[in-house]
Design brief:
Blueprint (H helix, E strand, L loop, with lengths): L1 E9 L2 E6 L2 E9 L2 H10 L5 E5 H5 L5 H11 L3 E4 L5 H9 L4 E4 L6 H11 L3 E8 L2 E4 L4 E6 H6 L8 E6 L11 H8 L6 E4 L5 H10 L3 E4 L1 H4 L5 H8 L4
Parallel strand pairs: 1-4, 1-12, 4-5, 5-6, 6-7, 7-10, 10-11, 11-12
Antiparallel strand pairs: 1-2, 2-3, 7-8, 8-9
Helix pairs in contact: 1-3, 7-8
């Protein structure tokens, strides 16, 4: 199971949001490449980058992402504002090995296009609150039920799914195991959990449920847990 620290980029700085709200942004560093180096030195399996400027339509952090990808040796997945094949090509050329699409993936025709172009390099971000998928940076509630959406993704040739519990994201209240357990039962693809993960026990339980990875954000920035502690623990969990 991969331990994947999150680096959310806003105007070139490392920030964390609560439940995806831009106004809640808390800046943790203005040196994202140094943060990436720190996590890699603590034996993170890969890095999860969210380009919030691209997601909000206010720009992008492509140059920073290139720098992080170089440090990570390609062990980097990036999401946020990826709407076209050209967007994906830019990231792929920057050394990114997983391209995460969210809102775009709700259009199955566009998702097919991405899958045909990038294959298993494409992962789908499934952002959920109260069992319903949200879009456009978590601002728009759809009518799509998470279980229905996940069941449609098997067989498309994509790499996997990043499943986020919006209600838990950035809240340090622990992961919702009932939610993650139900969602995992709906899909056979590799799946990564995100949202509310704030302890070693959360990660252990997710591994036992069958998740392939866990994205950890605010808990590591607030020193609740460390990447080093998590990676060490995972070596001993079967």
């Amino acid at each position: 199971m991969e331990i994947i620290p999150a680096i959310d980029l806003l105007e070139g700085k490392v920030v964390r949001l609560s439940q995806g709200k831009r106004e809640s942004a808390k800046v943790y560093s203005d040196k994202p490449i140094e943060i990436a180096k720190k996590f890699l030195n603590e034996e993170a399996d890969r890095l999860h980058i969210v380009d919030l400027d691209a997601a909000f339509g206010t720009g992008n952090n492509l140059e920073v992402i290139k720098g992080i990808a170089k440090q990570a040796g390609g062990r980097i997945q990036v999401g946020g504002g990826i709407r076209t094949i050209k967007d994906g090509e830019k990231l792929s050329a920057s050394g990114v090995d997983r391209i995460i699409i969210g809102t775009t993936a709700l259009d199955l025709e566009k998702l097919w296009d991405f899958a045909l172009e990038f294959g298993e390099k494409v992962w789908v971000a499934c952002d959920v609150k109260d069992g319903i998928v949200y879009a456009k940076g978590w601002k728009e509630k759809t009518e799509v039920k998470v279980i229905d959406f996940l069941s449609e993704l098997d067989g498309l040739g994509i790499g996997g799914v990043v499943l986020t519990d919006i209600s838990g994201d950035g809240m340090l209240k622990g992961a919702s195991m009932d939610f993650f357990r139900e969602a995992k039962s709906a899909i056979d693809l590799p799946i990564i959990a995100s949202g509310g993960i704030s302890s070693v026990e959360d990660v252990v339980q997710l591994k036992k449920i069958g998740f392939n990875g866990a994205i950890v954000g605010k808990a590591i920035y607030e020193n609740k847990i460390s990447v080093k502690e998590l990676t060490k623990m995972m070596k001993n969990v079967k």
